[in-house]
Amino acid sequence: MTKPRPALDPVLRDILADMPLMSELTPELLEQLRQQPSTPIDALLASRQIQRRETTVPAADGTALPLSVFSPTGADHGGNAPCVFWVHGGGMVMGDRFSQIDIPLEWVEEFGAVVVSLDYRLAPEVTDTTLVEDCYQGLLWVAGHAAELGIAPSRIVVAGISAGGGLAAGLTLLARDLGTPAIAAQILICPMLDHRGITTSSRQYAGEPGVWTTEMNAFAWRCVLGDLTDDQVTAYVSPALADDLSGLPTTYIDAGSAEVFRDEDTDYATRIWSAGGQAELHIWAGGFHGFDTLHAQAPLAATARRTRTDWLARVLSTDPVA
């Protein structure tokens, strides 16, 4: 029997009705999805005063990881620009550094920020901590090239969506525990934080097609964890496992009320507060997973994006506080 679910926002419901939806992922379907064209980055940049350059960063094992840098055309911030290290979504099994990049590109225009996005390696080709360790190497590159990028090392923000939000959370935990680099804030957009599937919302979206279902989530986590047993999974991979959420930078978390990740995201914010940290949490009534990326012009999506940007404006207007 299907569990009762929060109603969808009426505009989003109509949008969802016209979308091709799935209930499950399989290795064969994943391969098909990976063959779909990437975000048309040149078209996305065509009307913006944003310049892009490409480079690579070595992973811990020496693998070259593609990395893109987006910065305002002709800007000179005297080395004080903020930087957003962007971690793309895709269940940790698909997507690339241009996925959902329209979100942080708004911050290039709004704040003169430099946005850096990395192609971390995907599961199941790599597993366990390799994905977050790839992200960490990218973040170290940003901190080490701050002068070249024209950014202030004290104004680095880590941000990600969905699986990228979970990786951003794990990356922030890893940077805290290793003591470097400093992170001014983290933005976790509908983050994928818990492999266990134990919350109400993680079970609420089973049995029917959707944007991201219980079954799809379980498949993605199996790809990431491989042969690991539960007691071998670390908080850097599944951040909800972290015993200690103290010492984190100020955090923004949002999700829809009608999605798998709602409850684990709410719990993560609550535990940051319990540890004495600062977090802002928004659960958007009637929002499905990734609603503000799939139709940014919908009223609820526009409100969610504007609220997130307003929060970042407040953070960047003050000195970073750990």
What's the quick description here?
The protein has one domain: Alpha/Beta hydrolase fold, catalytic domain (Rossmann fold), CATH 3.40.50.
Describe this structure in words.
By secondary structure, the protein is an alpha/beta fold. It has one domain (10-316): Alpha/Beta hydrolase fold, catalytic domain (Rossmann fold, 3-Layer(aba) Sandwich). The protein is 37% helix and 18% strand. The chain has helices spanning 10-17, 27-34, 41-45, 102-111, 130-144, 146-149, 163-178, 200-204, 214-225, 262-274, 291-294, 299-316, and strands at residues 50-58, 64-72, 81-87, 114-118, 151-161, 185-189, 250-256, 279-284. An 8-stranded mixed β-sheet has the order 1-2-4-3-5-6-7-8, with helices on both faces. Helix 7 links the parallel strand 5 and strand 6 (185-189). The mean pLDDT is 95.
Q: Would you spell out the secondary-structure blueprint of this structure?
A:
Layout: H1 10-17, H2 27-34, H3 41-45, E1 50-58, E2 64-72, E3 81-87, H4 102-111, E4 114-118, H5 130-144, H6 146-149, E5 151-161, H7 163-178, E6 185-189, H8 200-204, H9 214-225, E7 250-256, H10 262-274, E8 279-284, H11 291-294, H12 299-316
Parallel strand pairs: 3-4, 3-5, 5-6, 6-7, 7-8
Antiparallel strand pairs: 1-2, 2-4
